[in-house]
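Figure S7 source data.
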Amino acid sequence: MCGNKNEIIKFLMTYIVKDECIKCKLTDCVEVCPVDCFYEGENFLAINPDECIDCGVCEPECPIDAIKADTDTSVKDMDKWLLINKKFSAIWPNISKKQEPMDEHEKFRNVKDKYDKHFSEKPKK
Ligand code: SF4
Ligand code: F3S
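Tokens for the predicted iron/sulfur cluster complex:
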């Protein structure tokens, strides 16, 4: 038999961090997560989709709207962002305390499509 309905929904749903976070890393999101499933790269945070319980409390905390549910059809390249969150949350260190944003966050917060030019695969320094 398959798992029960809740297990199936859990498997299918998560929240993800996307392009806006790159080079900003404001970190308002991490303190509200009840399961501490944010992980920190050099210039981006990733949510672990296997740990996220889909509570949604982090989404309104991000001042630049970088967090969305993976069911949000308005997000461009959702499959790409899901893979990025999954891949890097597995290898970056956990973060659960707010910290200072990146030095250039004001300059980068309104820049669109930062991934190709600016995304770093490195863990936090
Ligand atoms: Fe954490 Fe809830 Fe956001 Fe998932 S949706 S990352 S569990 S705060
Ligand atoms: Fe990034 Fe927004 Fe969190 S900028 S670190 S997703 S508050």
